[in-house]
Amino acid sequence: MKCLLVEDDQALARELGQALRDGDWLVEHAFNGQEADFLVRTEAYDSLILDVGLPDGDGIRWLAAWREDGIDLPVLILTARERWADKAAGFSAGADDYVTKPFESAEVLFRLRALVRRSHGHAHPVLRMGELSLDTHTQHVALAGRPVSLTAQETRLLSYLMHAAPRVVSRTELSEHVYDRDHEPDSNVIDVQVSRLRRKLGAWRIVTQRGQGYRLLAEQPAAG
């Protein structure tokens, strides 16, 4: 999953960004609203962490403009403002959740994962597709109750497919959401990593829809 972190405090951005990366997120950073505005309109993200006190305008005003233009990715607001009126303004502008500074990075991760799950229609923190499960908090993958060892990139790829299931996910979408913008892979790299997942999870679980992309299955198709 890919997150845009909009925070002008460089020390806080480094600390929170590292916590997100340690939690297996891809993170891109914007220091002001104008830079964030360009990125949310040109790049694909699964979530956005938005500081309210930005050097070029209130983050809530930027958020209201994005919502007005139909940008609907989950948004978690960070702010030192504790008044209920400020929180209400954030929610009214389109925020999905709100964390007051100072905060624990772990709390931000828990809230962010919950926002993304719910945006894909999943309420439980453990995603399940038949005998396959993924704990979104720990990133542990199991098959029929037995742990499956995956690389970090394989876990991110599987996580995105599980969040999106049963929808078909294109190679372009995977490239935008699962890989760093500065190291976007060609389709052959994605094919290779999907093949590795198939070897570890069962070839039938990830179906290639010709000309469309990949789809994760919960049950093995009947023979014939």
TrEMBL record:
UniProt domain Response regulatory: residue ranges: 2-116
Keyword field: DNA-binding, Phosphoprotein
Superkingdom of origin: Bacteria
Transmembrane segments: none
CDD domains with a match to the protein in the record: trans_reg_C
Signal peptide: none
DNA-binding region boundaries: 124-218
Gene3D superfamilies in alphabetical order: 3.40.50.2300, 6.10.250.690, Winged helix-like DNA-binding domain superfamily/Winged helix DNA-binding domain
UniProt domain OmpR/PhoB-type: residue ranges: 124-218
PTM annotation (4-aspartylphosphate): residues: 51
Any Pfam family hit: Response_reg
Name of the molecule in the record: Response regulator transcription factor
